[in-house]
Amino acid sequence: MNARLRLTAALSGGILALALAGCSSPEPASVSTTTAAEAVTIDDAWVKTAESGMSAAFGEIENTGDADITVVSATSAASPMLELHETVENESGEMVMREKTGGFTIAAGETLELTPGGNHIMLMGLEAPVVAGDEVAFTLTFDDGSTFEFTAPAKDYSGANENYVGDGEMDMDMGGDGE
Asked: Confidence band (pLDDT; 50, 70, 90) for 162?
C-alpha cells in the first residue's frame, strides 16, 4: 500500500473512533432507576371498623425518592371497589368527599397524610364486616406501573361518618359521636 493510501486509512480510522466514542457517553448521573413503589414507606396505617357498606384507610405515605410519584389506585380483598378520595368544600359550604381525579401525587421527600376528614382510601361495598384487630391488606398502584403492598389494622373510630349524596360526592359527618 502506498504512503498516501495508508495515511488516508489511518485518518479515517481515527475519525471513526472519535465519532463512536462521542456516541457512547456514559448515562447521566441524574437518571433514577428507582420505581415509585421502591421509594415509598407507609406509617401508622389503619382502617376504620364497619359492619357493612363503607370504610376507609388512613396513614402516612412517605416518598423517600428524588422524584414526584403518583398513587393512581388501590385494591383490597376486603372490598370490590376502592377509590382515592379527597375532602373539599362544595358550593353550599358543606364538606364533601369525592374521588381524587388523577390520584394522589406525593412530591419527592414529602409525606401524604391520609386522615379522617381529609385524603383517604375509600372502601365501598365491603365483602364482610371489618372488625377491630383485623389486618386488612392493600395494594397501591403508581403511575409508573409499580405496586406497593401493606397491611393495616382495623380500629374503632366513631367520626367521619360518610353518606352518598349523588354526583359522585359523599357527605361527611365529622363529629365524634358516631351519629
From this structure: low
Residue 177 clears pLDDT 50, i.e. is over it = no
Would you give the distance in Å from CA 11 to the centre of its chain? Answer: 56
The angle at the Cα of 15, spanning 13 to 21, to the nearest 5 degrees, equals 100
**What pTM, to 2 d.p., does this model score?**
0.73
